[in-house]
TrEMBL record:
Organism: Saprolegnia diclina (strain VS20)
Protein's name in the database: Uncharacterized protein
Superkingdom, natural source: Eukaryota
TM stretches of this protein: 21-39, 318-340, 352-371, 391-412, 424-446, 476-494
Keyword terms, alphabetized: Membrane, Transmembrane, Transmembrane helix
Length: 626
C-alpha cells in the first residue's frame, strides 16, 4: 500500500505473515542445531579415548564385507611328488607366510617369495602322512603327485591359502594359516605357546580355485604345525568348533600330543594411523571367497568370520564444555528473541555470534578434527555391531552439519559486518541447505566411498594396519560445498541490495529517530536492505524494525526505554526468579542501569538510570520505531 507520503510500505497482514516469524524461526533453528551439537558431543565424548566393547561383529560374503587388504598378490602353482625327500631347513615356518610383507604393487617382491612359499607348503603336504585315520588317504600315498596352488596377500598379516589336489581325483585339501594359542587342557593358560598353524579340510576339487575354503561345520579340520623346519600334527577338530565361534577354545584330538586347546589370538588392528584401534578375538578359522577378486584394484578377496570387538577411538578435538557454552548461549538468544524481538525480522543469534569467537573457534576445531570423526563414521559404517548403538555412524555427520548450520548465518553476518544482514529468510534457507548438504556428504558419501587399504603401521602394538582410501580425497568436500553455499548467499545479498537501492521500494524519512540516534543519513550504510524492516505506525508514519538497534549493541526492552545488550542478562535473571522478594533483592544488588528513553514510538535524546523493577513494570515494546 502507499501511505500519505507516497511511500510503499508493508501492510499489517504482510508484516505478520512475512516478517514476524522470520527472526523467531531462525532462532529456533539455531536452538535445534545447538541442541544437536550438545547431544552429539556428549555421546561422542562417552566413547572417545576409552576402550568400548562393540560386541559381536559378523563379516559375511554378502553383507558387511571385509576385503582382505592386498599389498602384492602372490599366486603360484607347482607339482610336488609326495615321494620327494625334503632337506631339513631350520628357518622354514608357517609364520613366514603369515608375516611376509611387500610394498604396494611390488610384484618383484611377490615373485621372489614364491620359492620359499612352495617349500613351506611342501612340508604341509608331507604332514598329511602323519594324520591317523585320515579321510583322504590318497594324500598320504607317496606314489602320488600333488598340485599345490597357493595365494597370499603379502600385507604383513596375511591370509595365506592353498589347495592341494591330485590329478584325476575329485577331492582336494584346502588349508588356511592362522595364529593361535596352544596349551594342554590341564595346564594354565599362561603356559600357552603362540604359533601359526595350517588348518586343512577336505573339499570338492575346484579347477578354478583361487582362495575358497568354506566347508560344512561337521567336516574334520586338521591342525598342522611347521616351525623351524619341523612338522607336527596337532590334532583334528570339527570345523564348527573353530568357525563361527569367536573367542571359543577348541580342543584338538587325535594328535601325538593331544588333547590340545586352541584359542584365537586377539588381533590389534589400526585404522588411519591409530585414530581407531580394534582388538578382537576372531574365529580361529575363517572362510574365504575370491569369486569377485579384481587383481587391478586389489578388491574382492572376501573373508567371512565373526569376532568380539573392542574399539578405541582417539580424538582430542571434542570440547564438551564449548558445546555446552554454545547451547547455553543459544538458549539465551532464543529467550532474548521471544522476550524483546518477537515482532522483529532480525534474528539476534547470528548478530551476537558474529561479535564473539565461540562460534568460529568451534567451527575451526570441528573441521580440524573432522578427519577423526570421518574415520569413526566410516569404521562404524563398515563394521556394524549387533550389540552396540548403530546410530554412532551418523553422530559425527550430525555434529559437523549442525555446527556448519549454526555458522552459516554467522559467517554471512561476519562478512557484512558492521552492516546488519536483514534478509533473515535467506540465512534460514542457507543454514538448512548447508546442514542437509554436509550431513548427506559425511554420512552417505564419505563412508560408503571409503575402502580399507593397507598402510604402514604407526603403533608398535598393532599388526594389521589399514587406511580408508577416500578420506584424503573427500576430507575437504564438506568445507568446500558449505563454503560455496555461503558465497552464493553473500552474492545474492549483494545483488538484492543493489536492486532494492535502484528501485527505491522503501524510503525512510530523514526524521526517523533511529537515523538520528545512529547519526546517519540512510540505512544503506548499516544494513544490507531496509525493505523488510519497515511498517506504518498508528499515525501512518513509516516505522523501522527496532531489531536494527543490534548494530550498536542496543535493544528496546520496553515501550519507553532502550538499553545496551550487556544489561540484558540481568533482566533475564530477574525474570527467571520466582518470587517478588527475590526479584527485589536482585534488582537492588544489580543497581541501576543506563537506559535511553523512548516516547510515542520514537527514540528521545534523553537518558537516565533505572532499576530492573522499574523496567519490568513497563509494557512490552511493539518492535518498531518511527
Amino acid at each position: 500500500m502507499l501511505d500519505w507520503r507516497g511511500v510503499k510500505v508493508a501492510t499489517e497482514h504482510a508484516r505478520y505473515r512475512r516478517v514476524r516469524c522470520q527472526g523467531i524461526a531462525l532462532s529456533l533453528l539455531y536452538l535445534f542445531f545447538a541442541s544437536l551439537v550438545a547431544f552429539c558431543t556428549y555421546e561422542l565424548s562417552r566413547i572417545a579415548n576409552t576402550p568400548v566393547f562393540m560386541g559381536l561383529n559378523f563379516e559375511a560374503f554378502t553383507t558387511n564385507q571385509f576385503h582382505v587388504p592386498i599389498n602384492a598378490l602372490l599366486q603360484a602353482s607347482t607339482a610336488f611328488p609326495l615321494s620327494t625327500k625334503l632337506k631339513p631347513n631350520a628357518t622354514l615356518s608357517l609364520s613366514d607366510l603369515l608375516f611376509k610383507k611387500c610394498g604396494l604393487g611390488d610384484e618383484t617382491c611377490a615373485t621372489a617369495f614364491v620359492p620359499r612359499s612352495n617349500q613351506i607348503w611342501q612340508w604341509v603336504a608331507k604332514a598329511f602322512a602323519l594324520i591317523p585315520n585320515f579321510d583322504q588317504p590318497r594324500f598320504q600315498d607317496a606314489a602320488q603327485t600333488v598340485v599345490i596352488s597357493h595365494i597370499n596377500n603379502l600385507s604383513g598379516w596375511n591370509k595365506a591359502m592353498v589347495q592341494f589336489s591330485i590329478p584325476g581325483h575329485n577331492v582336494a585339501m584346502t588349508c588356511f594359516i592362522r595364529r593361535v594359542r596352544l596349551f594342554a587342557p590341564e595346564s594354565p593358560a599362561s603356559s600357552a605357546v603362540v604359533d601359526t598353524l595350517a588348518f586343512c579340510s577336505q573339499r570338492p576339487f575346484d579347477p578354478n580355485w583361487v582362495c575358497e575354503n568354506e566347508v560344512g561345520l561337521d567336516v574334520a579340520t586338521y591342525a598342522i604345525q611347521v616351525s623351524q623346519g619341523k612338522i607336527q600334527y596337532i590334532g583334528a577338530v570339527r570345523r564348527g568348533d573353530v568357525y563361527y565361534r569367536p573367542g571359543y577354545a577348541a580342543t584338538c584330538l587325535g594328535g601325538p600330543i593331544s588333547p590340545m586347546q586352541l584359542e584365537p589370538v586377539p588381533i590389534n588392528t589400526e585404522y588411519e594411523g591409530g585414530v581407531v584401534q580394534v582388538m578382537a578375538p576372531w574365529d580361529i578359522v575363517g572362510a574365504c571367497n575370491c569369486a569377485t577378486l579384481n587383481k587391478a584394484t586389489g578388491r574382492g578377496w572376501l573373508l567371512q568370520q565373526k569376532g568380539l570387538m573392542t574399539m578405541l577411538w582417539t580424538c582430542d578435538s571434542l570440547l564438551l564444555q564449548s558445546a555446552l557454552v554454545l547451547w547455553c548461549l543459544t538458549v539465551y538468544l532464543v529467550w532474548l528473541q521471544f522476550a524483546f524481538l518477537r515482532h522483529s525480522a532480525i534474528c539476534s543469534a547470528p548478530v551476537f555470534l558474529s561479535k564473539n569467537v565461540i562460534g568460529p573457534v568451534i567451527l575451526l576445531l570441528t573441521f580440524y578434527g573432522n578427519h577423526s570423526l570421518q574415520t569413526l563414521s566410516t569404521f562404524m559404517h563398515q563394521n556394524p555391531s549387533y550389540t552396540y548403538a548403530s546410530y554412532y555412524q551418523i553422530i559425527g555427520p550430525a555434529l559437523v552439519a549442525s555446527i556448519v548450520g549454526i555458522m552459516t548465518g554467522t559467517l554471512i553476518q561476519i562478512w557484512f559486518n558492521p552492516r546488519l544482514v536483514t534478509q533473515t529468510w535467506l540465512l534460514l534457507v542457507a543454514s538448512v541447505v548447508n546442514w542437509l548438504l554436509v550431513f548427506c556428504v559425511e554420512a552417505f558419501v564419505v563412508a560408503p566411498q571409503s575402502n580399507a587399504v593397507p598402510r604402514t603401521c604407526q603403533l608398535a602394538t598393532t599388526i594389521n594396519c589399514l587406511a580408508y582410501d577416500a578420506l584424503p580425497r573427500l576430507h575437504l568436500l564438506s568445507p568446500l560445498l558449505s563454503g560455496g553455499v555461503v558465497l552464493l548467499a553473500i552474492g545474492y545479498i549483494y545483488r538484492s541490495s543493489r536492486q532494492a537501492a535502484h528501485k527505491h521500494t522503501v524510503q525512510v524519512p530523514e526524521t526517523n529517530s533511529i537515523l538520528s540516534y545512529f547519526n546517519i543519513q540512510d540505512f544503506a550504510s548499516v544494513t544490507t536492505s531496509i525493505e523488510c524492516c519497515c511498517d506504518t505506525d498508528e499515525a501512518g508514519a513509516v516505522a523501522v524494525d527496532a531489531g536494527l538497534l543490534l548494530i550498536k549493541s542496543m535493544l528496546q526492552v520496553s515501550d519507553r526505554h532502550l538499553t545496551r545488550t550487556c544489561n540484558i542478562p540481568y533482566t533475564c535473571v530477574y525474570r527467571l526468579l520466582a518470587s517478588t522478594r527475590l526479584r527485589r533483592l536482585w534488582s537492588q544488588s544489580v543497581g541501576s542501569i543506563l537506559v535511553v528513553h523512548v516516547g510515542q514510538g520514537a527514540i528521545l535524546p534523553r537518558a537516565s538510570y533505572k532499576l530492573l523493577d522499574e523496567l519490568a513494570a513497563e509494557k512490552v515494546a511493539t518492535g518498531y520505531l518511527s
